[in-house]
């Protein structure tokens, strides 16, 4: 209850109203003290009029008049003459004099607070103006004990009234908040929970009905988000089905194309000049198709296991990659340079790191061969206290503009003409699985440089691909 929005609102409202009432309490008590003095001045003046009307009164009547007025003495100044009208013995000397003829507000508040804090029984003098022009000035002496008791009683009544007002006000606000804010918010939360159980069910999308502007905006935003999410989930499901179909087709097509490669070996041995001239192009086309199928199958394996991290020799992996690529170069003038420090090992999955480096080297080799010029591919390794660094540099023509814009995006960032871009996407994903980064450091007409950063710590460097 107290941890709810309405419960906290109830507590805060009660506290704030009490603070406001306390701020009113001080001047209210000061005002009560002023009225107390003025009332006693008026009663003393009325009592003194009795003596003025009858020159002599009995001591008993005088004592009764002073008691009814609540004072010890009454001094009235009329016609510039100061006259003690009524008097009785004063138990203690006069402690202080207060002038009630237009006193400043701060002085009233100060004197009131001092009186509330002073528990001693004292006698004070009060000066004021007579009512109905009954003289020039009237003075009275009175005890402070009844004054302090009256102030305390009045203050307690004020505090009780403030508490009652606070409780009533807070209760009304509590009910209002629950009705106009908490209940609509609870409805939004219920809609969100119901939608979370079956987000693909469009019937569970919230229908904005709130009358409060802010809540209506929240409902509109939630409805828009749920609509987009439901559409995205349906699209994702269709894409997943399509991906499964493509993987199956690619698998079967790869088998068919592999058989076609075997037939092209027979075609290449033909003595027909036209056949011998066209056979290499046919072989290249089929080889590209096989590579595309294999890349599609690799990219579609969502259940590919996480990397098994262990210490592996970087130079051995690079040697295996270069050895295979040298065979693929054939008669083309492409050289390889390896600059891996002796004994350098990295913590990685050897098979996955081989695929990453192999994809990058293959792309570089194909780009250089496509130019018809000589070129070089250099692979180097380095390390510091935090990172292992593997750099692959080639002297090819650089990446085309489309590849730069959609780098590491499947089917978008092909580095060669007709390429699918799956090689870079797979490489980047495998490096991410190691907690590292695959970065394009440079690409221009003089060549391209990729850098692989693998962290030495157990924490990933970054979830982003630079």
Automatic annotation (TrEMBL):
GO terms for cellular component: plasma membrane. One of its GO terms (molecular function) is phosphorelay sensor kinase activity. SUPFAM superfamilies: ATPase domain of HSP90 chaperone/DNA topoisomerase II/histidine kinase, Homodimeric domain of signal transducing histidine kinase. It is an enzyme of class 2 (transferase). Its EC number is 2.7.13.3. InterPro entries: 2C_sensor_his_kinase (IPR050980), HATPase_C_sf (IPR036890), HATPase_dom (IPR003594), His_kinase_dom (IPR005467), HisK_dim/P_dom (IPR003661), HisK_dim/P_sf (IPR036097), Sig_transdc_His_kin-like_C (IPR004358). The chain crosses the membrane at residues 9-30, 154-177. Residues 248-458 form the Histidine kinase domain. It is a multi-pass membrane protein. It catalyses: ATP + protein L-histidine = ADP + protein N-phospho-L-histidine. Keywords: ATP-binding, Cell membrane, Kinase, Membrane, Nucleotide-binding, Phosphoprotein, Transferase, Transmembrane, Transmembrane helix. It is found in: Cell membrane. It comes from the Bacteria. PANTHER family: SENSOR PROTEIN CREC, SENSOR PROTEIN RSTB. This is histidine kinase. The lineage of its organism: Bacteria, Pseudomonadati, Pseudomonadota, Alphaproteobacteria, Rhodobacterales.
């Amino acid at each position: 209850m107290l941890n709810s929005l309405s419960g906290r609102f109830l507590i805060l409202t009660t506290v704030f109203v009490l603070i406001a009432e306390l701020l009113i309490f001080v001047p209210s008590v000061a005002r009560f003290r002023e009225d107390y003095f003025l009332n006693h001045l008026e009663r003393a003046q009325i009592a003194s009029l009795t003596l003025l009307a009858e020159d002599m009164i009995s001591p008993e009547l005088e004592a009764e008049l002073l008691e009814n007025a609540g004072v010890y003495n009454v001094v009235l100044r009329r016609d510039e003459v100061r006259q003690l009208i009524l008097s009785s013995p004063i138990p203690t000397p006069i402690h202080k004099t207060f002038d009630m003829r237009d006193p400043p507000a701060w002085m009233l508040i100060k004197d009131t607070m001092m009186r509330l804090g002073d528990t001693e029984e004292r006698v004070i003098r009060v000066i004021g103006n007579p009512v109905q022009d009954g003289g020039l000035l009237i003075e009275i002496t009175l005890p402070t004990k009844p004054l302090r008791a009256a102030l305390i009683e009045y203050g307690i009544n004020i505090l009780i009234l403030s508490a009652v007002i606070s409780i009533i006000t807070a209760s009304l606000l509590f009910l209002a908040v629950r009705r106009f804010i908490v209940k609509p918010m609870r409805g939004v939360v219920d809609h969100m929970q119901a939608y979370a159980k079956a987000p693909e069910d469009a019937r569970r999308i919230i229908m904005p009905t709130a009358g409060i502007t802010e809540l209506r905006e929240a409902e509109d935003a939630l409805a828009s988000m749920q609509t987009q999410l439901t559409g995205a989930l349906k699209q994702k499901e269709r894409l997943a089905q399509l991906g499964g179909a493509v993987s199956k087709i690619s698998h079967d097509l790869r088998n068919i194309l592999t058989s076609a490669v075997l037939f092209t070996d027979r075609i290449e041995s033909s003595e027909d000049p036209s056949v011998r001239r066209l056979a290499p192009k046919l072989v290249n086309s089929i080889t590209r198709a096989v590579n595309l199928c294999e890349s599609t199958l690799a990219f579609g394996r969502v259940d590919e296991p996480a990397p098994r991290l262990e210490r592996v020799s970087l130079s051995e992996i690079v040697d295996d990659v270069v050895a295979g690529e040298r065979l693929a170069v054939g008669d083309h003038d492409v050289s390889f340079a390896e600059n891996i420090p002796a004994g350098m090992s990295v913590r990685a999955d050897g098979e996955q790191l081989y695929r990453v480096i192999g994809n990058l080297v293959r792309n570089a080799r194909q780009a250089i061969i496509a130019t018809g010029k000589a070129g070089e591919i250099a692979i180097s390794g380095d390390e510091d206290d935090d990172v292992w660094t593997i750099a692959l540099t080639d002297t090819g023509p650089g990446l085309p503009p489309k590849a730069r814009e959609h780098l590491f995006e499947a089917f978008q960032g092909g580095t060669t003409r007709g390429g699918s871009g799956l090689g870079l996407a797979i490489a980047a994903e495998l490096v991410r699985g190691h907690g590292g980064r695959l970065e394009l450091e440079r690409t221009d007409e003089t060549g391209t440089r990729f850098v692989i950063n693998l962290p030495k710590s157990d924490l990933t460097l970054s979830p982003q691909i630079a």
